[in-house]
Design brief:
By secondary structure, the protein is α+β, with helices and mostly antiparallel strands. Helix content is about 45%, strand content about 20%. It is built from 2 helices and 4 strands; from the N terminus they run H-E-E-E-E-H. It has a two-stranded antiparallel sheet. It has a two-stranded antiparallel sheet with strand order 3-4.
């Protein structure tokens, strides 16, 4: 792989990690939603990445199959006869850890891209005095 290939791989990695951060942000935003008779509570989404010849691509956005959380809140208008409500299966602390991981991966791709760019500049300046 040449320098341009390394830069292309880093750029696809940055795009994928940025998309992953967007989905994690959606998960955090939907963390406190409640199931109503007309709408299900927000379900956590996961980004599935895959490797290609040119880098990384978003393969799919998968719905997390873990059950919704059951919380006792008899004052909620959507509570059942036992006083329970169904809430989103998003765990904000887990999502923040995922966000930190995606952010660090994005930063690593920036560092790799900048290193390849610096090498390309140095190679162009070899003939200069």
């Amino acid at each position: 792989m040449g320098l341009l290939g390394a830069m292309r791989t880093s750029s696809t990695g940055m795009t994928a990690e940025r998309f992953r951060m967007d989905v994690i942000s959606q998960n955090i935003a939907g963390a406190n939603t409640v199931q109503t008779p007309f709408k299900d509570a927000y379900r956590r989404k996961e980004v599935v990445l895959s490797s290609t010849g040119d880098g990384v691509k978003v393969d799919q956005i998968a719905m997390d199959k873990t059950p919704l959380q059951t919380v006792y809140d008899p004052s909620n208008p959507y509570a059942d006869a036992q006083g329970n409500i169904k809430m989103s299966n998003v765990q904000p602390v887990f999502e923040m850890v995922n966000m930190l991981s995606a952010s660090r991966a994005y930063e690593a791709n920036i560092a790799a891209f900048n290193a390849a760019r610096s090498m390309a500049k140095a190679a162009l300046n070899i003939g200069n005095i």
